[in-house]
Design a protein that fits this description.
The protein is of the alpha+beta class and 426 residues long. It is 30% helix and 23% strand. It folds into 3 domains: 215 residues, Sulfite Reductase Hemoprotein, domain 1 (2-Layer Sandwich), CATH 3.30.413; 82 residues, Alpha-Beta Plaits; 102 residues, Sulfite Reductase Hemoprotein, domain 1 (2-Layer Sandwich), CATH 3.30.413.
């Protein structure tokens, strides 16, 4: 039995870089989903001159620069600050974790999620009591417009509801929400955050996330402490499907090109190219998403199609049919020191089979270097957990599930996936 992975309880940041197998990992801090072409181009330059030229787009819609060294980190931070992608200080960076609707402020929504994200950041950094929030505590702002965030896990969710109201929900309680007016939503979210800090203090800081607090104290403890009343509430919006992200798209009056890199791993020249497309074909604006894709906003669909055509020259993902979307894989060894083995060596061979066994979101296979399953917390039809002797195979669960088969070779994995794909086809 392999040793359990180390739970660090924090995300890499500019002020708290995370050591990895290829150097230091830092984050260009975005608040909300908006990023300019100029910012993207400079991030690509920083990645190339201060790191190893690799950039990961995370599930939290943040760009992470890899391979930063002790000799170059000061320059990297200075340049991130110059483009407005460095938090004011370490406390602000640690607690300002916000995901906003990708098309906020462009497509019709009940509120401007990016504007609310900026307000939320100010309040989080102003209130000294909130510095006690754990560093993975996440706020989600879904304005009810295009591209819903229903499949994104967050501690506190602010979501558009019916009749102009806003639903405030918490992790671990899917069927209830506090319903408030739009101008009261930010205050309600902050009250929940303060209540979490209060309850966490009462219980010796044992709760890392809202879900663990709910599991220990029940669904009513947090809203009661916050002075909020939870009512029955059912999420009506379905998660985004790949078809609505990639390629040339139109959402109401908004046109965009959805472009991704396999497993969210961008090379500096690819990000620089996308930044150039955003200026030459688009409006000079990109949007970050939690689905490891970038949206290049364009004046019309014809411009979006030109962006897609140009992006294909870099072998980027521009179609929902791309088989690489059926696999989610963490960096693995040697980049991650906790991984038992490499995870991406055979993904191109496995991708067509993974597509055939894909679940509701199109993902058929999750490859994880350790049981933390950082790349995907939810269940997959098949999860392969790296081990010293090959891979353990887990069915319909995450990386922390019980393996059905252990220590499979790559050839054995191919046979198992082929059998499942054939069964689906019958």
């Amino acid at each position: 039995m392999q040793p359990g992975p180390e739970i660090r309880g924090w995300c890499p940041g500019a002020f708290a870089p995370m050591p990895s197998g290829d150097g230091l990992l830092i984050r260009a801090k975005a608040v909300g989903s908006r990023m300019s072409a100029a910012q993207a181009r400079e991030i690509a330059r920083i990645a190339k001159s201060c790191g190893n030229g690799l950039i990961d787009l995370s599930q939290r819609a943040q760009l992470q620069l890899r391979g930063i060294s002790e000799a170059t980190i000061a320059e990297a931070l200075r340049r991130l600050e110059a483009i407005g992608m460095l938090a004011p200080n370490a406390d602000a960076e640690r607690i300002t974790n916000v995901i906003a609707s990708p098309l906020a402020g462009l497509a019709a929504g009940a509120f401007d999620a990016n504007a609310m994200a900026a307000q939320l950041a100010v309040e989080l950094q102003r209130d000294g009591a909130l510095r006690a929030l754990p560093p993975k505590f996440l706020f989600l702002l879904d304005d009810g417009g295009a591209l819903p965030l229903a499949d994104v896990e967050a501690d506190v969710r602010v979501e558009a509801a019916a009749n102009g109201e806003v639903a405030i929900r918490i992790a671990g309680v899917p069927d209830r929400a506090a319903l408030v007016a739009a101008n009261e939503a930010l205050d309600a979210a902050l009250r929940l955050a303060r209540a979490f800090v209060e309850l966490r203090n009462r219980h010796a800081n044992q709760f890392r996330r809202v879900r663990t607090l709910v599991e220990a104290l029940g669904a009513d403890a947090l809203p009661r402490t916050a002075g909020l009343t939870m009512l029955p509430f059912k999420e009506a919006r379905a998660p985004v499907r790949w078809a609505h992200i990639f390629g040339a798209q139109r959402c109401g009056a908004v046109a965009y090109a959805g472009v991704g890199a396999p497993f969210g791993r961008w090379r500096a020249n690819e990000l620089a190219a996308v930044a150039e497309y955003a200026e030459s074909e688009g409006t000079g604006e990109l949007r970050l998403t939690p689905w490891r894709a970038l949206l290049i906003i364009t004046p019309d669909e014809e411009a979006a199609r030109r962006v897609v055509s140009r992006a294909q020259h870099h072998d980027l993902i521009t179609s929902a049919d791309d088989t690489r979307l059926a696999i989610i894989a963490c960096p693995g060894a040697p980049e991650c020191p906790q991984a038992a083995a490499e995870t991406r060596a055979h993904v191109i061979d496995l991708a067509p089979l993974a597509q055939k066994i894909g679940g509701a979101d199109g993902v058929g296979l999750h490859l994880s270097g350790c049981a933390k399953g950082c790349a995907r917390q939810s269940a997959s039809p098949v999860t392969l957990l790296a081990c010293a002797e090959g891979f353990d195979l887990i069915e319909n669960a995450g990386a922390d599930g019980a393996p059905r088969l252990r220590s499979l070779t790559f050839e054995a994995v191919m046979r198992e996936l082929s059998a499942r794909a054939a069964g689906r086809a019958q």
